[in-house]
């Protein structure tokens, strides 16, 4: 076949796949979170704590990556009645496989499992999802799925406005008694199991009334028009699918790197605390915020469906300090104006985002650079995380030291670190932890969720990071002394190093960012 014919055949195939569509009529049996779970193991453990703190929620930060993984595994193993899991990404790697197995084992015990995944990152997972969905106690639904299960470019051609809108929410709830909410997806880079790259991130483990709010959010998305039963869009499982899953899980347990990682998880103090029911919870007011799932089907200016107005109201107007951590920071004209007004009114505004050499999404960095100068001129303080600048490993058994790394990566050093936490604190009084990035995509395109916590301890912890650790782990961006251009100040124990261009990024990458900056793509970022 000549090259021209091959290209023609490819384009014809792309055109034909672009004609595929989702099923017009889908039977969705509505289900809701189980409420008769007080007699479960988790319910019995939570009851005396909740009784001693009526109306309050118990919150425990999951800072260290291995802690965050261990907490999810423990919840899956302790679940007696139900698991409700909602994620944007679930990788088929070591931690992903281990959690698949924990979920399967729960279903084998009779636990009802509802798994809601955004479909943007499930390519190649259809056989696994079909096998899971075939289990009588597991139901899988895909949010805003692609009609083409192979060449997904066809959907982007024929249905871009729909498939560009994604569910970025993340939650893990067991027996409607305990929930994990935050920035972590399911994958090795989130849990300290990837030695090449580690995401610095943050979740919280919650018990009490906040769990019912997470469950209500899950039910809303699970029963929404955009949540398709997996069986309606993917091929059915093969007879040997379940055996293939077990074989894959056995291989994981035989992998030396996985064995080493699991040993590190077993050493985490939180694992023993969870087993002994001795987790240090802070009892306070916590409120779950989220977009409406119909946001992805409606025009982007429908603020009544968006989480941002709720978030601004819940966080309150800063009077002294506003500390923002966002890996993908594109404040836009309105956001920049608001931050500058705060800074000029006397509020200390500090931002931590990824540097160009640390980010995993270069176009977003290009969107951020448009506003960097204006923010600095307006009085905001900008820090950009250095590549590989993971927080120091905490000392075992010391919760204060474990919290010191807020937000945190793994206790095992990876060769590169990238910021992934989405958290901000107001006046060292309240803190937000969730999936919401400070960018147009979170505000207008995707759905998001998170929790606002009234906690001077947690909020103060984040702000203290800006006072102490962040200045040595990130570049301080500021105007050059002569007022022309920017400089990046790298503070090390041996002194300061000043860079006149984006450190760690070569000329080709900087040129690429300059090009992206002029493109009209901010609404996509």
What keywords describe this structure?
alpha+beta; 38% helix; Endonuclease, Chain A; 525 residues; 20% strand
Globular, elongated, flat, extended or rod-shaped: what is the shape?
Answer: globular
| Biggest sheet descriptor | 10 strands, mixed
**The CATH homologous superfamily of the largest domain:** Endonuclease Chain A
The total number of structural domains is 2
Q: Helix count, per DSSP?
A: 19
Secondary structure category: alpha+beta
Strand count:
21
Task: Please mark out the parts with pLDDT under 50 across 5 or more consecutive residues, or reply none.
Answer: 6-12, 391-405
Main sheet: strand order: 11-18-17-16-12-13-14-19-20-21
CATH structural architecture of the largest domain: 2-Layer Sandwich
Estimate the helix proportion, in percent. Answer: 25-40%
Mean pLDDT: 91
What is CATH's topology name of the largest domain?
Answer: Endonuclease, Chain A
The CATH first-level class of the largest domain comes to Alpha Beta
Strand content: 15-25%
Give the C-alpha Rg. 23 Å
